Amino acid sequence: MTDPPRLDVLPGILAVGQGRRAASGPASAGEARLVVSASVYARLLSLADQAPLENLPLDPRTLARARTMGYNQIGQIRCTTANRLVADFGVQHADELLRALYAFGLKQEDSGSRDVDPVE
Question: 60-68 vs 91-104: helix axis angle to the nearest 10?
Fold first, then answer.
């Protein structure tokens, strides 16, 4: 059995269903909100995860290293713990990968403690 999808990973999209309700009240200034069912949300997240790493704003060296190490899709990076990314890429490139996820509009899956956080 698989874990249910996280319902806060795609910005601006709120999943409803399975005991969740759409937030009442207007969205804050400059914020657009799309309300979808949990199943549609899971499909959207799955599509984002299948996108190739070339869609992320990465330095060519980081992208080449990711390919060499077998990372080809955004979901592979998103589902890998920060500790593992640091072990595979080093602190600088792991930070770049995490920043690129945020730039793409995705969050890394919760994986317990994280040693590396993108610098704001």
Answer: 100
